[in-house]
Every structure is written in structure tokens, then in C-alpha cells.
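Journal club side-thread
Mid-discussion, someone asked how the predicted structure for our own chain would compare to the paper's figures. Pasting it here so we can look after the session.
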Amino acid sequence: MESNRSVGRETSGQGTGRRKFGLLLGVVLLIFAVAAIFIGRDDGNKARFDSLVDSVLPASDPVDVGLLVGSEKKGFLADPRVVAAFREEGFNISVSTMGSLEIAQRASQGSLPDHDFYFPASSGNAELKSFVGAQSQEGLHVESNIALVAKRDVAEDLASQGYLEPLEGQFQANARELYRMLTSGQRWRDVTDVYQSPLNVGVLTSDPTRSYSSAQFAYLMADAAMGGSLRSSSNLTEGARRVLPIFQAQGLTEGSSGDSFNQFIASNGHGTPMTVAYDSQFLALVNQRPEKAEEFALINLNPTVRVQHELVVNDSSMSTGKAEDFIQVLEENQEVLTVMMEYGFAPSAESNYRSTFDERTRDVFPQNPRYLSSAPTMEETTRLAGELERLM
């Protein structure tokens, strides 16, 4: 009997403890409710109140979010500081990569892997958004320009020979002059003293049939070859034929500029000492590996193409509320925006951080680059890429 009474006393104690805890929790919540009424009237205290509530209430498990991005953005989104910032806001992000042009092509074929967000390079083309079959977040994009990166001594020598123009600590190439040099059949030893290679003058690219950056570069070169009249179907076909030598020498290579650029830097520009890249990739190298960056030079193109990398939400897998919360972190979190700029991506023109970005990049990027008067549409880009693939 004593044993039963002991058990009864323990059970009664546990029940009393639960009632006390429930009463205490009710009082705490009542205090929060009353405080919210008064604090809500004062915007200055609201943030402190929200922080207090978050510290008391149990945190929910982070929401898993999968992104499919052009590989030039993987470094930024997979940076431990960005991952941690999203984790603090309740998101566990994972990043997969694919060439941005391939994203569009596979979406149109119905074979695009399912992800919560897509973050390709798209230059604001409505065609890509419709290919993905999802909603683009208006105004949510980062920007970068098509450019070249070369071994610095080679770039300096090309400038001394008149092939490039020194520009604000870096270099600039006229698109038509660059096209002539790349298709002249000359060897590196013919155009530079510091690189006595018997290889033909050329530039490394990723696969223009899968990589948006290389397809845009192909369009720039074809437009230069056609005297700025690359619009009709017949001109696109002829333009592809004229720029074929630039790409045929290396065949169809990496599917994304991130892969080709990283390999170029890792090889110290061995073989062909110049590659197509986004200017953002060079700035990321300057910020993260400044000593290594000194071995290379950015060659801005005149004209160039400004590429907008737009975030596209897969409405079928992300609830509207969670998608908006995720986007808010990307747009407003100071740590995320700081890392974004370190990786060379300009915040959108509407962002409060745009002036900060321009100030930090003053010594790398030209302040007033000239852009192609009419950026190619996705239809034109894919048609030119298709012609190149057919000819190759």
C-alpha cells in the first residue's frame, strides 16, 4: 500500500507541476499580449519585442530550400556566411548548378529538375520566365557584364601593340577589333612578345549551346562581324558562320562559365591565356584572392551585354509566404548583401546598396560602360547557339 501511495504522490506532484507550468506560460503569453498592444504603437520597440518573443518561444525546424543556379552564382550562395544567414532566418539552403541556357532549354523540353527557386542569367528575357513556367520576382535581380579575363602580362603586351586600350587600371577591347583578332589566324607569337606560343590567337569559352555567358559573347562577336545588324534569321545564320572559328578550335566544352573560369584560374592561364567571363567573377577573385588576382587582368568589352540574373520562384513547391520570407532575406539581409558584393554582383538599381557597390568597384569596373543597343532576346540567343551547334 505504501508503494501505491508513493506512486500516487509522485503522479500528483507531476500533475501539479504541469498545472503550474501551464499557468506560468499563460501568464507569460498574457504579458506578451498586453505588451504587444503598447509596444506596437512604438516602432522603435517593436524589433526588440519580436527578438524577445523569438528568444522565449521554441524555434521551428529550418525549411529546406533547393536552388538551381548558373554556376557563377554558386560561390556566393554556398558561402558559409550566406548559408548561416539563411539558417538564422529559418532556411536550410542547398545549391545545384546548370548552365543558364541549358536551364531554359530543358524547361522548354519539360526535363528541368524540380527546385524551389531558379536563379539563371537571363537579361530580363520574358521568354526564360515562361520556359520555367513560374513567377519571376519583379525587380529581384543582380547584375554583371560580359567581359574577358587574361594573363596580365599578355593583356599589357596586347595593349602596347594596339589591340587593347588601357582603361582605369584594367583594359578595354573594341568588339569589332577583338573579332578581327580572334578570327585572323595569327598565332600568339605574332601579336605578343611575352607569350611566344605557336597556338592560334583565341579565347576560352564555356559551351555556347548551354552557357548563357558564352552564348551572349557569341552574339556580341556575331553582331560585330555583321556590322551591328544581327537581327534577321538569315543574319543570325551568317553571323554564326563567321564566329564559328572562335568556338570550333576548342569544341563544345564546359556547360557553365563558373566551371571554365575556375579552371582557367587554376591552370594559371596555361595554353590559351584569355577566357570569357562575367566581370563579377574577376571582382570575386580580387576580393577573395588578391595576390592571385594580380596575375590577371579584366578586359571590358565595348560594347558589352549587361546580364540580369533573376530569381524565379517555383510556385508549385514553395508557399507564397515562405517564398516571400526567403526573398526578403536575399534583398535585405546585410550579411547576404555584403557577401553578394564581394562576389562581384551588383545589387539592382533600386537597392540601397547599389551606391556602396559602385564605390567598392571603382578601381575594377569602368564607371560608364557602353552596352549593346538592344540586348539579344532568349529566342535570338538560342537560335544563334543552335546554328553554332549545327555548324560544329
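Post-session note: Residues 1-21, 52-58 have pLDDT under 50 and may be disordered.
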